[in-house]
Amino acid sequence: MSEPVLLMRDIVKAYDLGKQKVQVLNEISLKINKGEFVAVLGPSGSGKSTLMNIIGCIDTANSGEYILGGEPIKEKTENELAHIRNKEIGFIFQKFNLLPKYTAQHNVALPLLLRGVERNVAFEKAEDLLVQVGLGDRIDHKPIELSGGQQQRVSIARALIGDPKILLADEPTGNLDSKSGEDIINMFLDLNKKGNTIILITHDLHVAQQAKRIINVRDGKVHEG
């Protein structure tokens, strides 16, 4: 049996909006095993973005237990959470979040450079990954010189460079045409076959159906299937 890479028990998240308290997540329990490809599906306002932020250690729960890679998250300091975001989770965003002044290679190398890895080592690994995602002839191109699909491939290479426990993709096809979106989903399927654990956040049922398992988020609760 696969080991859980992510375990949540009774996660609650609420926000204070002036005199009003809005509960966004209501006692969510969730287990994702190593090597799974899971889609988190829900409409705007369902709580899926808040759940994603907690999974990604961008935000923290008010109560409940979150264990990532066997480590409880609750007592982590902000510096420790930043380390987890850099090392344990590979983020892939809808808007790519590439730095415009840097080449594709430099963008991909950044997570390793932030860890203090030597520049030549980081750049060599970045080049290898860009070759793997089909951009070996674009390593010196800046984001403005790349199509949306190519920029998302750079984003995926950047997410992979630190060998994270989880790839966390937020609406990764949302800014792409249908052909580029299909290419990106196929890349996720290939990465999953190689053993990568992938959590894909989406509002699109067709995209979600490409994953091996679907978790629906509705009114701050999760429902399988």
Automatic annotation (TrEMBL):
InterPro entries: AAA+_ATPase (IPR003593), ABC_transporter-like_ATP-bd (IPR003439), ABC_transporter-like_CS (IPR017871), MacB-like_ATP-bd (IPR017911), P-loop_NTPase (IPR027417). One of its GO terms (cellular component) is membrane protein complex. The keyword S-adenosyl-L-methionine does not apply. It holds the Pfam family ABC_tran. Keywords: ATP-binding, Nucleotide-binding, Transport. It comes from the Bacteria. Residues 6-225 form the ABC transporter domain. GO terms for molecular function: ATP binding; ATP hydrolysis activity; transmembrane transporter activity. PROSITE patterns: ABC_TRANSPORTER_1, ABC_TRANSPORTER_2. CDD domains: ABC_MJ0796_LolCDE_FtsE. The keyword Iron does not apply. Belongs to the ABC transporter superfamily. This is Macrolide ABC transporter ATP-binding protein.
